[in-house]
Specification:
single chain, alpha/beta, Rossmann fold, eight-stranded mixed sheet, 17 strands, metal-binding, RNA binding, RNA-mediated gene silencing, SAM-dependent_MTases_sf
Length: about 550
């Protein structure tokens, strides 16, 4: 009998359930998608923990939002009537960027908040490694140019304490927080966040207890489910985390959302995210939904909402320390932001960059992430597109490989090819050996150098510099002659043939008329996104 019972328990082991991407990333993607769709610029993360979301929100957008109507001059050539895409449209609007101006985080854990402080801090300037000192060269400071100011604040305190700085914030995010609230704090959650602060948007996520059935077979005994018994003793449910005070079914979450939305003047959309990679052999996937319940609250008009909420919170009699502002970070925009140079100067800069790379075709975004090009455009990628459209020796290719509507695949072509030809290949009849010094010994220079190689190479051998010996990088100054909309001003440029040329040497100077080229600047900048790699809760 005991053997049969043992076999039954063994037969009903917990089922394998995996998520791709990991569930914590799916939650973050959901939040970011809503923020993008709603064009949110100010966010408060309640229960921010180590600040993983805030760190992402603190990264700069690769370019500014489109310039105001009428800022760009009309195109030189009338658009083709059959073309459904107008000249210089909003670039890459199929994946809109976030343009954050204010991010705030609140949590009770000082240890977690130290990571949030670091993650939202402005990047530090690189310093050279000096022998005998504790200075080092950082490999992670080149996070890209910033075109908009950003203010980041990190607060320590409980959500039951009212913080007047949070009133009327544009959006509040609460991910995997509400299920951790003690019973005495829970009643203050909705009145404080939706009543007193009354954001335009409120985003919330919490584990779905309904989904937990996915971890075992339908007829499995309760002992087959691994996890944590309800610490309150109110139910016999098994939770996913030891600190969860409850886990709602989809029906319970829906009912709570609709009740508080009606009470505090909001419309709400309830759904779920996080479906298992494995197909449930009992066909329960649609019935159980996703592992995480989510909801978007949108503010409606409601008279005396804040006054009513303050009265409710006062009756709760909760006491707590005032929130402590741990840090305030200021991220400053580049000084050339919204101050582009003339279209002709940008056109010349693009040609110089392509000739420096010895490329006749480059993607628009490859050009954009050359630092000098982005600075010349003042942070507006639409200005780059228009300069190419109006340039006589450049062509914008929008229909290659059937990608006309995929603006991230647009290319720029250098008409006429590379003009500053160089003898980079042996002439006919010559051997490549003619280009090797007679006294050259392979790797001799590297092995005998005192300082060794200070650069780094990737798997393909491309050299990746993380700075230069001269850290005082000089930016092309904004020309007052071409400020605002005065794109056609040529008064400060001497004509030489059909175009004018300048060289960069700490400042714009006239180029020689023989080649009309601008030397390529080796300084480049790209940005990427690096999310956190772990999460304590599912």
């Amino acid at each position: 009998m005991n053997n049969d019972a043992f076999l039954m328990e063994d037969d009903y082991q917990e089922l394998k359930v995996t998520f791709y991407p990991p569930l914590f990333l799916q939650r973050r993607i959901w939040v970011l998608d809503v923020l993008r769709a709603e064009n949110v610029t100010k966010v408060l993360d309640v229960g921010c923990g180590e600040g993983q979301l805030l760190t992402v929100l603190s990264q700069p957008a690769p370019w500014l939002a489109p310039p105001p109507p009428g800022f760009l001059p009309p195109p030189l050539e009338p658009p083709d009537a059959s073309d459904t895409i107008p000249p210089s449209p909003t670039y890459n609007d199929e994946i809109p960027n976030l343009h954050m101006t204010h991010v705030m985080g609140l949590d009770i854990s000082i240890n977690d908040l130290q990571f949030a402080i670091q993650g939202t801090a402005p990047p530090q300037d690189e310093v050279n490694l000096e022998e005998g000192s504790d200075q080092y060269r950082s490999h992670y400071t080149n996070v890209g140019l910033r075109w908009e100011n950003l203010e980041a604040k990190i607060w320590k305190g409980g959500l039951e304490v009212i913080n007047e700085d949070f009133l009327d914030i544009e959006c509040i995010v609460s991910t995997e927080v509400i299920e951790h609230l003690p019973p005495e704090i829970f009643p203050a959650f909705a009145p404080v966040l939706l009543g007193i602060y009354h954001p335009r948007l409120f985003l919330i996520t919490t584990p779905s207890y309904t989904f937990n059935a996915r971890f075992t077979a339908p007829e499995a005994p309760p002992s087959a489910r691994q996890g944590y018994p309800d610490p309150t003793g109110r139910t016999d449910r098994i939770f996913r985390h030891s600190d969860h005070k409850f886990e709602w079914t989809t029906g319970e979450f829906d009912a709570w959302c609709r009740d508080v939305a009606a009470e505090w003047g909001y419309a709400v959309d309830v759904s779920s995210i996080g479906h298992a990679q494995e197909v449930d052999e009992w066909g329960r996937d649609a019935e159980l939904g996703g592992a995480t319940s989510v909801a978007v609250f949108r503010r409606l008009n409601l008279e005396d909402r804040e006054k009513k909420a303050r009265a409710v919170v006062q009756t709760l009699g909760l006491e707590g320390k005032s929130h402590e502002l741990l840090t305030k970070h200021e991220h400053l925009a580049h000084e050339q932001s919204q101050h582009p140079q003339s279209l002709k100067e940008i056109c010349l800069g693009v040609r110089a960059t392509m000739e420096g790379f010895r490329e006749t075709i480059l993607r628009v975004e490859e050009l954009w992430f050359e630092r000098d090009i982005a600075v010349m455009c003042g942070g507006w990628i639409e200005v780059l597109v228009r300069s190419v459209e109006d340039c006589e020796f450049l062509a914008l290719k929008r229909d290659g490989d059937g990608a006309k509507n995929k603006r991230s695949m647009w290319n720029v072509e250098l008409l006429g090819g590379i003009t500053d030809s160089k003898e980079v290949w042996p002439a006919e009849g010559e051997s490549s050996l003619d280009y090797i010094p007679m006294d050259w010994i392979p790797r001799e220079d590297e092995s005998e150098s005192e300082g060794g190689w200070n650069g780094s190479t990737d798997m393909e051998g491309d050299i990746s510099w993380n700075g230069s010996e001269d850290d005082d990088e000089v930016e092309p100054p904004h020309s007052s002659e071409v400020a605002g909309n005065d794109w056609g001003d040529k008064g400060d440029m001497e004509e030489c043939g059909n175009i004018s040329g300048r060289v960069w040497d700490g400042g714009w100077k006239q180029a020689a008329c023989e080649d009309n080229t601008i030397p390529h600047s080796s300084g480049s900048s790209t940005t990427g996104w690096d999310g956190d790699e772990s999460d304590d809760t599912t």
